[in-house]
From TrEMBL, chains A, B, C, D:
It comes from Streptomonospora alba. Its EC number is 2.5.1.54. This is 3-deoxy-7-phosphoheptulonate synthase. Gene3D superfamilies: Aldolase class I, Phospho-2-dehydro-3-deoxyheptonate aldolase, domain 1. NCBIfam families: DAHP_synth_Bsub, PRK08673.1, PRK12595.1.
Length: 348, 348, 348, 348
């Protein structure tokens, strides 16, 4: 940590800071420049942060130098993590496709979507039973009924389930059905939810807040990790910018950046970032090529009647094209497309 | 609602849309332009939204024309609302100042802050017992202990309490102490929390999400209103932009814009938007002059030891200056500074 | 300047940096922390910048500590500047209103607008003869014909002229007519234009780029100052954000921030930031209250036929309201509304 | 074009609009909805735009439906364009790599960079002789001396030259040396420069403004096209967002979006968007996979002494890796890597 003094800082200001840091158990090294003096701090950063150094007289700025997260940092675990979701790996040398409907609507629609997901190269099934919607007048999801549908479809298809939870009070219920809990973009800083998810004994898919910096995203992951759960997969899903031609702006650079800062796997959601069907395949290819650990895409048998986000769901010819892109691109970036588990009894 | 057809739309595409709208109980009027055809829809917009018109063949765009919120819209209530918080009005011709510490730390610090708040012209006391913090390693608030401190300080000073709630599970507990529930910027789209707050029987201070459009902010208010609670005050607190010289960018224009779209009062938080003490007074003046219904500011007796956001807390000479600014500027925009209630027994 | 070494930096990396800095005539002070080492540099920052320290092995980050501009910095001139435009002051304790049509269209329209400007409290006339337009199909201005109209109106009304120049090649021509050269938001980093304006012998109104940080804005001013012209007035006119309810987001905080970083006067353009007539008066009040040195607003006798930006032009009852707001609010922030010069011969 | 009337619009307001549109030679079709009336306009949109319909009484909004550009629109030319740069194609089924130093510094550095460019798979050489720099104290380029160096290197290596021009006054000079004129991000709306480039008889590489919408980018291209030059290549180079982990946020989705709106080729600059060497290869792969028509990357023989943007220049092992990525990924998206021309006399 470095304290930058203002041009008008006095010797007394500097001495007061050195005393404060020393009394907190740290060491302070003063460098007097031509126009500014800087003070380098050595010791426990978190302790310094409680000192509110920025409010001391003469201080112009306080620069944090080490990262504010620990458990999820690549500094604390050099190798890259692999997270197992119902036996399906995400991370390492794998390229994992997750697919399914935005929302669970009916058993048939969900089952049909699961078959589409598998055909698209997916080894995990996504589908929302609890939907956070901007409008209170929009479809809010089937709740536990939807979870039961997902469980039935898993039994039939063998695909483990990724599904969203939106309230800390629901975490245990959802964890009773799901193989992986998804925390959505609007809840990335719902700290009660993060903590509950950290204790639920399930891997967590943590979407980046649409307005969150990469650092804040990793801090949110740290909330989960702190509760003892390091089975976290990060998901870039687009950020909010001035550009309105797409629903959000996919921050493709966030994939390599987050992978360098953290050991956690990082996947991409091309469906919610682009918001348009015709962008999903190019963005999926882009995500695989940039080195993402996976993609999560919306599919729907009849997008024109979907209760949620139909315009971005893949359908028809899109499905084999996604499978082919995943299969052919993955080896070029040193990865192998994860195979889907067989249904129980499939081999009998 | 208007459907814009693409350049390649056929007669069959248009007929299919007219049929779909008609079968949903609406009316469709077709206008053929030189390069595009548009279809104007008459009927219940929310019903049309379930049709997913955007996914129909030939459609290029679907333009919503009426606003997606109803209860909080100025179209549905022409006059401006006044919300009463423990007897203190916000809205109408009032200019209401809310002040207090960012976080409740100790009884003394809270009481002293309350005296500062009153001296600054405030008629309501703010103070956080539950703090949503970006870092899991930062001070998270005193919880119910903090609420009890606030209640004690209210008893002594007469100032009603505004305090934040961060989890739907805590709403009833917090509502048992607070005169007004605050929903913070990170929770603006925590829909479970919004709904719980809508049923708690307390006025709600709804901060704008730092990445939320004004429309999304009003939709969030609609979630509260839908549960029967129209005692909502909107709070502009800065949005996230590329500019990093301030903590956030105060969107001062959002005040008149939100006041024209909604009948709800709109106040401004100059402390959290600017993030620096020296900006709080100029931004407070700016907020009053633009026509805000109030301001909410941080004060602290010893900012340099504050556990949260010390650098932005007003102190010392700032206090009478805020009081004077509020008193002298308010009449120039047709408002009267709200008087603080006397402590119970004060008149005896 | 501070160099932050990465966690894997070796002793050799550090020694190489110390040698490099020393050989460039600077001094380097090394502070070894628990997880990181930092190196504080003392000497000429601009020289260090040519070293590309960031590319040296082991370096994680390089933090600049002093500001990158000099002539326009408040560190180099403690008092606040006053700029004289044809005898009318901007800065100091003055509140200066500039008003006029967005574009010069006809002699009558310009003269009538000038009378409106004076009635609105303005002491300077704005009006564009060269218009940078997003669309090549939009009205691009009258060019020199427009400049002559402005000069005629100045002769009749006594109001000095502020007008835009969009190409370095036109600077001398425009400076032959104008009392102040305006550089628009799209040209804030047109460095050839900045340099030409710096040599033209006229004060310059430098609008902030809609995507420019405050620091970049001051760097652009430094380009002008470097050519010997310190008669620069900064103009905040809104930045581009995700919010689309207004044309741009007026960054009201930029006024006190820029005033603290630089000695140059800072004014606000509420017309182009809001983009809507009904926002201009509230935003003007807000600008005066925040402490701006002036405002620049669009007026037009018949906005519905304006060739440019009619929807944001003040008209009718807006005019006396702006004058009243400027007259009554200015004293509350320690300023006096600048009086308009009389026409030549007016006293005869 | 569609006019949306406000809730309080009267019959007279509507009649006045119909009359106005009719008198301008258009047709107006009125649809009365439950809460709003809309008016569909048929005729020449550009004529309607001069009417300032938005300023008419009763009008709430005016929605443009067709795109505001014509010559560069995919509606006006269905097939995709191929632009020839000194015989090297960009567009069609080609994947074209452009590489070279950010700035031309010396003959040796430029020649060495050209050899690196060829080894990286490039068929065109980039290099700046005129550098627009945020700071007036930074290296501004060698000017015509730099152009001569580029021409010498072209003679020796056979690689056609892409170089930036920053002032309309320099266009003819630069066009005398360059095979393609580059217009940089800060000049995307320097309309004088766009028009001069449109008349220079050279293909133009138009970088997207870091704050420009895709629509504004295409409008800027339209300025060039209007002067008779349709040999334009669009270059996405990152936009400015709140995220500061990268220099800019590469808007990878802009590639397929711009390709669907316009027939012009679209390439990507991964060096200036990411701003860090380690991001250039992943982002290049991402750009090729998303379907870009090319990439433009910085290379430098000794990045640690580069006068401009050294930290993002490829060097050493990066070079063959880029070549391999371009060669192996291109076929997967239906493209062929463009071969570099041989030096004149190479075959002798």
């Amino acid at each position: 940590m470095v304290i930058v003094m203002g041009p008008g800082a006095t010797r007394e200001h500097i001495d007061a800071l050195v005393d404060l840091v020393t009394s907190a158990g740290g060491e302070a090294y003063v460098t007097r420049g031509v126009s500014r003096t800087i003070i380098g701090l050595v010791g426990d950063v978190r302790q310094f942060e409680t000192l509110d150094l920025r409010a001391m007289p003469g201080v112009s700025d306080v620069l944090r130098i080490s990262v504010p997260y620990k458990l999820v940092s690549s500094e604390n675990q050099p190798g890259r993590s692999t997270v197992s979701v119902g036996g399906v790996p995400i991370g390492g040398d794998n390229m994992t496709v997750i697919a399914g409907p935005c929302a669970v609507e009916t058993p048939d629609q969900t089952l049909e979507s699961a078959h589409m997901a598998r055909a698209a190269g997916a080894s995990l099934l996504r589908g929302g039973a609890y939907k956070p919607r901007t409008s209170p007048y929009a479809f809010q999801g089937l709740g536990e009924t939807g979870l039961k549908i997902l469980a039935d479809v898993r039994a039939e298809t063998g695909l483990p389930i990724v599904t969203e939870v939106v309230d800390a009070a629901d975490v245990d219920l959802v964890a009773g059905y799901a193989d992986m809990l998804q925390i959505g973009t609007r809840n990335m800083q719902n700290f009660a939810l993060l903590q509950a998810a950290g204790e639920a004994g399930r891997p967590v898919l943590l979407k980046r807040g649409m307005n969150a910096t990469i650092e804040e995203w990793l801090m949110a992951a740290e909330y989960i990790a702190q509760r003892g759960n390091l089975d976290i997969v990060l998901c870039e899903r687009g950020i909010r910018t001035f550009e309105k031609a797409t629903r959000n702006t996919l921050d493709i650079s966030a994939v390599p950046v987050a992978q360098s800062l953290s050991h956690l796997p990082v996947i991409v959601d091309p469906s919610h970032s682009g918001g348009k069907r015709e962008l999903v395949l190019p963005l999926s290819r882009s995500a695989i090529a940039v080195g993402a650990d996976g993609v999560i895409v919306d599919v729907h048998p009849t997008p024109e009647t979907a209760l949620c986000d139909g315009p971005q769901a893949l359908v028809g010819e899109d499905i084999p094209q996604l499978a082919e892109a995943a299969a052919t691109l993955s080896p070029l970036v040193g990865r192998t497309l994860t195979a889907a588990p067989e249904p129980v009894g499939a081999g009998v």
